[in-house]
Amino acid sequence: GLGLRHSPAWKSNNPVTRPFSLLFPFRSLDTQRHPTTQFAGSAYRQFPALTMARRPARCYRYCKNKPYPKSRFNRGVPDPKIRIFDLGRKKANVDDFPTCVHMVSNEYEQLSSEALEAARICANKYLVKIAGKEGFHMRVRVHPFHVIRINKMLSCAGADRLQTGMRGAFGKPQGTVARVNIGQIILSVRTRDAHRATAIEALRRAMYKFPGRQKIIVSKNWGFTPVRREEYVQLRQEGKLKQDGAYVQFLRGHGLIEENMRRFPDAYENLSQA
C-alpha cells in the first residue's frame, strides 16, 4: 500500500519518478544511505577533487610587488610555518663559539616560511647529531613578513557561472614569505673551531631547501660580533671589551670617564700600569 509507494526502491524503479532522479543526481532519494548529499550544493563535499590544491612556491619566487606586510588593512593572514629563529646553545658566552659560518643569498627573491622551516630543521638535525645540542648556536636571519595572495578560481564543470574571471582579482592572503637581497645573510651558525666543517656541511644541506643560488661563507669575525678575530683577541687582552651575551660592548673614546671606568675597569688599570 502506502508504505511500498513511498519506499526508495519503489521511487527508483518507478518510470514516473526516475527522470527526476536523473535530473538531480546530487539529491539522494535514500536518506539513510546518503545522509550528507541532501542538496546539489554538496557536490564539493562529495567530490574532494573539485577543491583547489595549494599553489607551488615557484609561483611566488620573484619579488614583483612592493612589500605587503600584515596590518589593519591586510587581515586574515595565516601564521608563518617557522616560529623558532634561535636554536642550540643560545645563552653561550661569546668566548665559547669563535667560529661563525653564514649562508648568503646570491639572488633577489622570496623565500617561503615553509622553506625556512625546512632548512632550519635540516641544519639543526645535522648539527645536533655531530656537534651535540650544546655545541652550536644557529640563528635564522630573515623573517617572513611579506604576505602573498591568491585569486582562487574553480576548475570544475559549470564553474564559469560561479566565478567572475579577472574582475575583482586582488586575491586573499595565502601565506608569508621573506624577501632577501643579493648578499643578505639567511642563516648563521657560531660554534667551536673543531666543528667548523660540521657547520659548513649543515648549511650545505640546508641550501637544497631554498630556490635560487646561495653560497656559504666562513666569517673572519669572532662569532656573531662585528670584530675580526685578531682584533677581538687584542681588545680582550687590553680590557676594552665587555661580554654581552652573544655580542660584546666596546670601550668608546667619548662619554663620561667615570662611567667608562665603572664599565671597563681593566682597561684603565692597564693604562695606569703602562
TrEMBL record:
Transmembrane segments: none annotated. One of its GO terms (molecular function) is structural constituent of ribosome. GO terms for cellular component: ribonucleoprotein complex; ribosome. Keywords: Ribonucleoprotein, Ribosomal protein. Belongs to the universal ribosomal protein uL16 family. NCBIfam families: PRK04199.1-4 (NF003239), uL16_euk_arch (TIGR00279). This is 60S ribosomal protein L10-A. It comes from Penicillium cataractarum.
